Amino acid sequence: MSCPVPAPALKDLPRVAGDLKSELEGFKPTNLKNADTQEKIVLPSAEDVAAEKTEKALIAGIEHFDQSKLKHTETQEKNPLPNKDVVLQEKNHLNLLNGVEHFDKTTMKPTTTAEKIILPDTEVIEQEKGQRQLISGIENFDSSKLKHAETCEKNPLPTKEIIDQEKSA
Fold this sequence. Notes:
This protein has 169 residues and is an all-alpha fold. The protein contains five helices and no strands.
């Protein structure tokens, strides 16, 4: 048996401010302004419709796929093992690495290195001196010691006979 919920007492109800209460009592719906409401329905574009159609066709194709049309295939697992040559190369490589890593340096014989300094002979030195003198002569050349010279261009004009020969040729 359920207990009925007692109605709240009048003193527990919320109170409305006096000025608001008078406004609510004096409200007349004829004072409201008419307003037209416009519903905007945005239709999808042709691209959206086409994309949705292709998506639905793809999903339908997957849902209604006939598995009996599939062919049975055998899976071949391949695990290529290395041949003799590869194994032999790997062993040689490991032996070389071990030989280098575990090399006994005490078995080595001490050596002394003799450095030879080869100096150029007198002919080479004389050639260098000649080149240096030539370069210093060019660098330190005094152009004020030059004499002024005038250039005369000679361009003889062809004779009448030469012109006639060229015309006839």
